[in-house]
Structure prediction request, 288 residues.
Amino acid sequence: MKKSHASSYSADDLRRAQTYKARDYPQDVDPNIEGLVREMISSFADKWTVVILDTLWDEGTLRFSEIARHVSGISQKMLTQTLRRMERDGLVVRKLYACVPPKVEYSLSPLGLTLSAAFCNVWIWAVENHKAVDAARATFDREA
Amino acid sequence: MKKSHASSYSADDLRRAQTYKARDYPQDVDPNIEGLVREMISSFADKWTVVILDTLWDEGTLRFSEIARHVSGISQKMLTQTLRRMERDGLVVRKLYACVPPKVEYSLSPLGLTLSAAFCNVWIWAVENHKAVDAARATFDREA
DNA sequence: CGGTATCCACTTAGATACTG
DNA sequence: CAGTATCTAAGTGGATACCG
Prediction:
């Protein structure tokens, strides 16, 4: 995570890259921190976490079964597991109502809210560039 | 990916979240696109891709073995596999020099460059909040 | 050097059944 | 409703050996 990267790119590429950035890096990052941070990013960077983060960002507060409906394809097991990890990491708040049948509500914590915000640009990138990725894949597969 | 989320947060939380955002969403996103995008994000959201993206963003152009050195813990197999996928997705450019011994250089494509830029805020978030995550984990584990 | 191929241990995730 | 428990199939990733 250096402040600047090697610049063998066109001015236009770099300008376009800038539109995805909110802030410059504060400074070069301590290599020790770098390791910790990579480890942490790796733990968040899984299939479901990002999608759940996005869902709660959009919808605010949801019950267990509502999240399941929004995140198509997830199994109950993975949903439980992922939510539990996110709660442990302080990203999600779990509110249990003592009633029968049980009712549990999930929402983003302030920490989860800021992480979601940080992911915004990635989502925007995906919306704007998914066709380019598809095209690249098609080209690659044709040549192979 | 709606433009706004449910707001049961303090003004301060929301202000803090804003600092991680570069741009507002262009509009509510077509649900069909939403699915495609989630699928794509899921495919990028793995342990190694993000770290390699960051490494190439920092260093510019690297040889295979140099990336291996920068990304500690990765096996040769996973590095090959991940780089191949990233090349297929159009994020990375692979340049092969016809010489003995072989020399291969990897760098970000313009598409990869913009994605890296979009990830900047996530890295910044991680640098600024990894202690909060550690604290949350400690609290959670103590209570359990 | 930068891979590919094969084998194998381990992990992961889905399906199913059951519970407070 | 919101889980937990168990079993099993599939996938992942490391180690090793070999190749252009």
